[in-house]
Design a protein that fits this description.
The protein has about 140 residues and is mainly α. About 70% of the residues lie in helices and about 0% in strands.
Length: about 140
């Protein structure tokens, strides 16, 4: 059962790669249509002239490299410390599910209040994972 906690990591990494593919499948044609030289993308913000629906996908891809780093660390810690329980595995899957929902919200509808709610729920999942690991130290 202990290795089951590692599967959500694989799932979130795989999801990030799906978003990477989606980002370039939309970004490259948009750059070609706007006649943007790829070298012009050498500096942050240089692609801000692309359509918002294209930029949102890239923004989400970047977001998948921010808070999820804490998730990866917490899951690895949980595994290495021998703290894996069914509940911890469920929390890890809940986090992945919330991040996928967040991706769809950001890329397809981009309602900031809904995105924020999903982000907050995923943050609470991380807090619970951390708290449960801390409790094992007491």
């Amino acid at each position: 059962m202990e290795k089951e906690i590692l599967l959500p990591i694989l799932a979130l990494v795989s999801w990030s790669l799906v978003m990477w593919g989606w980002m370039y499948a939309t970004r490259l044609p948009a750059m070609a249509k706007a006649e943007i030289d790829p070298q012009a993308a050498a500096h942050p913000g240089s692609l801000n002239t692309l359509p918002a629906d294209v930029r949102r996908i890239a923004d989400n891809y970047n977001h998948l490299h921010e808070q999820p780093t804490m998730f990866f660390a917490l899951v690895f810690y949980t595994y290495l410390a021998g703290n894996v329980t069914d509940f911890m595995v469920q929390l890890a899957w809940a986090y992945v599910g919330l991040r996928v929902v967040h991706s769809f919200m950001q890329t397809l509808i981009n309602k900031v209040t809904l995105r924020f709610l999903t982000f907050m729920l995923s943050s609470v999942v991380l807090m619970v994972l951390a708290a449960l690991n801390i409790l094992t130290l007491l």
